[in-house]
């Protein structure tokens, strides 16, 4: 069988003998036939919002409007979402002052080039864009405590808006259950301290902090509360296929519209695990495979399909390197993966350190499996993080076969690890 899996902005092609393939786990989003083109899907969602008045009616008496927008790490087709949102707002209130607030969460700031790539030149040139910086105390407002006890601190532009909106996309998320909706607020426009508290070791280790789970998920509970306190009123979220094209859109109340979107994505993304000694996965290509940090997401899909003591191969370009100094240094300075896990387990919520959550999940994976990365990241960087680097799929498979005891071990392929919910 021949495979073409995403890697950066290109694909990696390879073949595997049919008798070695245990399964190919793919979201049915790639087969889904949309009812209309991308623009029409968003327009239709805005015309018939879920559990909400029309956006133009909501905006009619609102002077200060803020739209929380996803950052450069998310493949949200914003150029199809933001223009009709702006048109609706200005139809209801031509005098409204509108700001686009980039939800960087704990990521680095988006560059102008990345913003143009996301929104198009016209939006970047003509609209007021503010990039959230979680460590900038001058733009942070304290709003009390979260249900978990952590501090709730959010960007002042979001808090002080007369009308707070958000755009985004919904995909399976490896500890928040699903992306989108309430996640635009927390972690999107939250302070450093609020993000750290929400992503604490106790929550990440919780059995319900897993892909596709919202019920009983402690991170989700805090996120919903933050969105409520921020008075997030209306969202436009989309579902996309492997080509990053919109296949459905959901607009309206931030809870109800998000719930409908999650139900739709779950129906397409759910796949039965096909356990194998070797599991090949990706992080869906650009922009989600820009660094090792983000690529842990794709590894979690393989984690759910890999046999005990098996090998995970992930193809992720990582043009941006490791993606987080704290994340990288945790592995660089540790004596073992087990030490990392114990250190994190011993920390209180208030002691959470930057990127700890990603370190915690990667350490969990590395404690059970060997991981080989096909990547452009430097070999030393990969090896410092207790993984192996391969230059291509042939080399990766050869290395994996040497690591497992089976002769001609079985292989499961997950072409896009961030698009599936692997059900055991």
From TrEMBL:
A Pfam family hit: LarA_C
Record-given protein name: Nickel-dependent lactate racemase
NCBIfam families reported for this sequence: Ni_dep_LarA
Every Lactate racemase C-terminal domain range: 271-422
Native source organism of the sequence: Halarsenatibacter silvermanii
An example molecular function term from Gene Ontology annotations: lactate racemase activity
Chain ranges of the LarA-like N-terminal domain: 7-212
UniProt-listed InterPro entries: LarA-like, LarA-like_C, LarA-like_N, LarA_C, Ni_dep_LarA
């Amino acid at each position: 069988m021949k495979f073409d899996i995403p890697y950066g902005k290109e694909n990696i092609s390879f073949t595997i003998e049919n008798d070695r393939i245990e399964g190919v786990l793919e979201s049915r989003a790639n087969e889904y036939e949309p009812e209309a083109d991308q623009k029409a899907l968003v327009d239709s969602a805005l015309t018939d919002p879920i559990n909400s008045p029309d956006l133009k009616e909501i905006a009619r008496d609102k002077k200060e409007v803020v739209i929380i927008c996803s950052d450069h790490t998310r493949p949200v087709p914003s150029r199809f979402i933001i223009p009709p949102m702006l048109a609706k707002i200005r139809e209801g209130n031509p005098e409204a002052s509108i700001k686009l607030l980039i939800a960087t969460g704990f990521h680095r700031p988006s560059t102008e080039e990345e913003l143009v790539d996301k929104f198009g030149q016209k939006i970047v040139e003509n609209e007021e864009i503010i990039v959230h910086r979680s460590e900038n105390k001058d733009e942070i407002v304290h709003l009390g405590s979260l249900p978990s006890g952590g501090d709730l601190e959010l960007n002042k532009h979001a808090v002080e808006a007369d009308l707070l909106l958000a755009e985004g996309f919904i995909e399976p998320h490896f500890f928040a259950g699903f992306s989108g909706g309430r996640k635009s607020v927390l972690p999107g426009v939250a302070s450093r301290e609020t993000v750290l508290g929400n992503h604490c070791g106790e929550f990440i280790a919780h059995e319900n902090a897993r892909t596709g789970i919202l019920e009983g998920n402690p991170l989700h509970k805090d996120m919903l509360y933050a969105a409520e306190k921020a008075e997030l009123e209306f969202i436009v979220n989309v579902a996309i296929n492997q080509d990053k094209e919109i296949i459905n859109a959901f607009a309206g109340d931030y809870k109800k519209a998000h719930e409908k979107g999650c139900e739709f994505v779950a129906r397409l993304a759910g796949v039965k695990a096909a356990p194998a000694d070797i599991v090949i996965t990706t992080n869906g290509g650009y922009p989600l495979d820009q660094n090792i940090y983000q690529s842990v997401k794709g590894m979690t899909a393989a984690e759910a399909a890999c046999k005990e003591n098996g090998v995970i191969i992930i193809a992720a370009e990582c043009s941006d390197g490791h993606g987080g100094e704290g994340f990288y240094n945790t592995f660089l300075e540790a004596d073992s993966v087990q030490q990392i896990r114990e250190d994190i387990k011993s920390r209180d919520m208030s002691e959470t350190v930057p990127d700890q959550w990603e370190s915690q999940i990667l350490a969990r994976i590395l404690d059970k499996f060997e991981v080989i990365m096909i990547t452009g990241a430097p070999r030393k960087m990969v090896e410092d993080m207790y993984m192996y680097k391969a230059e291509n799929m042939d080399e990766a498979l050869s290395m994996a076969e040497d690591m497992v005891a089976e002769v001609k071990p079985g292989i499961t392929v997950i072409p896009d690890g961030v698009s599936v919910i692997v059900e055991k």
